[in-house]
Amino acid sequence: MKRNDMDPLSLPGGAERGSDGAALPEQGGQRVLTPERWLVRKLLDTVGSPPIALTLWDGQPLEPEPADPVARVRVRDRRAFYRLLRHPDLHFGDDYAAGRIQVEGDLVAFLTTVDRYRQARNGYGGGRPGLTARLHRARHNTLEGSQHNVHHHYDLGNDFYALWLDEEMVYTCAYFPHWEASLEEAQRAKMDHVARKLQLSPGDTVVEAGCGWGSLARHFAREYGCHVRAFNLSSEQIAYARERAEQEGLSDRIEYVQDDYRNVTGTYDAFVSVGMLEHVGTDHYRDLGEVIDRTLTDNGRALVHSIGRNRPMGPMNPWIERRIFPGAYPPALSEMTEIFEPMAFSIQDVENLRLHYDRTLQHWLERFGRSEEAVRDRFGDSFLRAWRLYLSGSIAAFRAGTLQLFQLVFTRPTDNDLPLTRDYLYGGGGG
Amino acid sequence: MKRNDMDPLSLPGGAERGSDGAALPEQGGQRVLTPERWLVRKLLDTVGSPPIALTLWDGQPLEPEPADPVARVRVRDRRAFYRLLRHPDLHFGDDYAAGRIQVEGDLVAFLTTVDRYRQARNGYGGGRPGLTARLHRARHNTLEGSQHNVHHHYDLGNDFYALWLDEEMVYTCAYFPHWEASLEEAQRAKMDHVARKLQLSPGDTVVEAGCGWGSLARHFAREYGCHVRAFNLSSEQIAYARERAEQEGLSDRIEYVQDDYRNVTGTYDAFVSVGMLEHVGTDHYRDLGEVIDRTLTDNGRALVHSIGRNRPMGPMNPWIERRIFPGAYPPALSEMTEIFEPMAFSIQDVENLRLHYDRTLQHWLERFGRSEEAVRDRFGDSFLRAWRLYLSGSIAAFRAGTLQLFQLVFTRPTDNDLPLTRDYLYGGGGG
Questions:
Q1: Where would you tag: which of A115, A278, A306, B256 has the fewest CB atoms within 10 A of its CB?
Q2: How does strand A404-411 pair with strand B346-352?
Q3: A412 and chain B in contact, CB less than 8 A
């Protein structure tokens, strides 16, 4: 799909001059639009007029309907429509969660189509990277702000996440050696992929910034004989991680620390951060680089794994940023360079795992779907719908190419003891 | 090696108050320095006081000498020393080429040591990235300027390069499957590595920007059955490339075009540029991105292979930039993002092959060394010494970690038909 290959629907001349709120009958073979229906068309124009069927609050479809619509959207409430007009990215989510907007059909396919059409219409670079992005970056991720933001999302309760994550509670992109791998298999493969990129050996010391429920630390301690210090701000996650390490008899090799990555001390053979950078904020990337610089040994390896984008833009989606993940921002590579360039680290390897996040989210959404009753019982219908939308919208974004997943490996510039080729990542000889 | 772990030599108090030009005898066990010898020490300080022995124009060594010097430098001429003081990076090269500065011992080891000590002293980020870099970037790489710059370096005569390059005349970093691979083997492996990254299939169309003597185009046409249009500004190289394609019966599948990359037309399954970006100039990276955007098919793959650095800085080395490679500039990744981010290309893969360029240059230097007589006969002693310094200094830079070699692969953001893993690059299954 090339940009600008789809023109907005051209409206029949004079149609905007209709005046009442109901659908008018056809006049001379041309369908005349009411002002509100004209506004709905305009709204669809702004996202490239994707092939979706719309039923408005009066119960009538917006005509003409597309021949092969990907889904039918019901806007049940006139006010919901006017909110959509004002700020579609924010209010689509809110009104979907509240049930005032409904999608009949495949929600993921619908969201993917909208993402693709919108990009084709507006350019893949997205709208205005400038001010919005900059204002956004300044927000929240002070030491106290980060604590608050993390609490909002990660302290919803371990039980909630246990409903739909894998058994190790890994809440980051998996690595699918093949498309049909199970989620459990793919999460283990991810941890092994990361371990190989970090060239871990028994006895190596590792520091982890943002450890979630502690799965990577346990994997490194159990499978690679490493000593891991793992940082996380979420009290619920840390408690869970400590308990599991205790149960597995790994407590002597793992220290889970409930603290900010900026307070990391000591030196380590490896630095790893999987899925934390999204919450760091670009203004603090240099801080992160300085933390890595002061903690990494001379021959140490660092790996940062993060959702990213093709170019700097505003918040990933204002609804997700406000309702699901406060303070989150997926950076472009140019922004990520602020982590390693001021310290003159050498980038060794960057891998884009976007398709793997699509697949990971498919598994999560499927499991989430099987737990809908439990989620509804505990959090209510609106929460259920919000999370279904969040998971589906994330699949759509990775599938449409608006989100990426970057894994970056870097070292000190003077380290010449590096493998010659990447054969060691793929079981080959050489190097 | 960590930055700032070596202090500049502390001078004995009062030593700077010596006054004549000759070495003074020891006084009370302390060696007193003349003003010039004090200045020599200061100059060494600025590069972190590496363990090198120095003999000055009066034939006397600078004392105290280091216990285990990596080499002995003879500055045969007082004026050469004062030029060094003013602009060491430029004049070391000129006076080395002229024979007024001589290095006894291993030139590569000497240059590598100086690079490392200098970085340890001044920080791996290097000095002032700001103004110098910006002024530099503005230079020369207009359509006409590029033509001139390319002529300076690449039109020295094919015979000259044939003396020390491999039989395919590949003048870019090779890919060593193992350290002891021959140069011929490693250059073929590089072309195969690039072909695999581009996922070439028979019948694919490829456009190459900056094709040198045309080896990659011949390899793609011969080994992968591709149709290649290859651009280069150098008339000598294009003539050579056409002749070889003719000899090999590949003319029907390769078109060598003597023109600037900005004039590329048509659409292609793959875009490749190996070793041209160094000559493009950061101000023109966006132009390059636009060329790729308008020439790549929807599922096309793009690969850019370039010398780079850990962070934005000034010219790689002013002597190399002025005397060897006018207009050359090795970018940091943050600068390279100007190629793909404005077009919203998705970065799929970045690989750093710095150690491979060290090895490639070792082969070139060894072959160059075996051809010294031929080079001296044709170009004179000063040219011979300049090129020996250039090749040795390049090894030093890759070995000391001041230069990197980045291979970047990128695609359109909407392309989901990508291999799931990188197994296909390493002969594995999966994907």
A1: A278
A2: unpaired
A3: yes
Rounded CA-CA distance A214/A195 in Å is: 15
Contact B341 A311 (CB under 8 A): yes
Q: In Å, how far are A203, A306, B6, B299, B410 from A179, measured between CA atoms?
A: 34, 21, 52, 20, 22
Mutation site for B-interface testing, chosen from A114, A121, A337 by largest number of B Cβ within 10 Å: A337
Which of B333, B423, B427 shows the shortest C-beta gap to A347? B333
Architecture (CATH level 2) of domain B34-135 = 2-Layer Sandwich (3.30)
In chain B, residues with a C-beta closer than 8 Å to the C-beta of A124 are: 343-344, 412-414
Residues 76-135 of A with CB under 8 A from B: 116, 119, 123-126
The verdict on a CB contact (< 8 Å) between A401 and B178 is no
Question: Chain B within 8 Å of A345 (Cβ-Cβ)?
Answer: yes
The span from the CA of B166 to the CA of B260, in Å, is 26
Most B CBs within 10 Å, among A6, A295, A298, A333, to test the B interface: A333
Q: How many CB atoms lie within 10 A of CB A184?
A: 14
Q: Contact, A71 vs A104, CB < 8 A?
A: yes
pTM of the model: 0.89
* Inter-CA distances, A132 with A138, A308, A316, B277, B377, Å: 10, 17, 11, 32, 64
Which tens digits make up the pLDDT trace of A98-137? 999 999 999 999 999 999 999 888 876 544 443 434 444 4
How far does B424 lie from chain A, in Å, by closest CA?
10
Widest CA span of chain B, in angstroms?
A: 82
Q: How far apart are CA B56 and CA B38, in angstroms?
A: 12
Task: Tell me if chain A has a CB within 8 Å of the CB of B312.
Answer: yes
| Helical residues (DSSP H) of B317-403, grouped into ranges | 318-319, 333-340, 354-370, 372-379, 381-400
Name the segment(s) of chain B with CATH classification 3.40.50.150.
143-426
Yes or no: domain A143-426 corresponds to CATH 3.90.226.10: no
Q: Which helix (H) or strand (E) holds A409?
A: strand A404-411
A12 near B CB under 8 A:
no
Q: What residues of B are in contact with residue A427 (Cβ under 8 Å)? A: 426, 428
Residue recorded with tokens 């160094």 = B278
CATH 3.30.1050 placement within chain A: 34-135
- Written in H, E and C, the secondary structure of B56-120 is CCCCCECCCCCCCCCEEEEECCHHHHHHHHHCHHHHHHHHHHCCCEEEEECHHHHHHHHHHHHHH
ipTM of the complex: 0.88
Instruction: Give the alpha-carbon dihedral of B99, B136, B169, B409, to 10 degrees.
Output: 140
In one letter, which amino acid is A84? Answer: L
Torsion of CA A295, A297, A299, A305, to 10 degrees: -20
CA distance B385 to B122: 28
For chain A, give the number of residues. 431
Chain B contact probe: residue of A176, A267, A426 with most B CBs at under 10 A: A426
A87 φ, ψ to 5°?
-155, 75
- Please tell me the predicted confidence (pLDDT) of residue A140: 55
Neighbouring-strand partners of residue A43: none
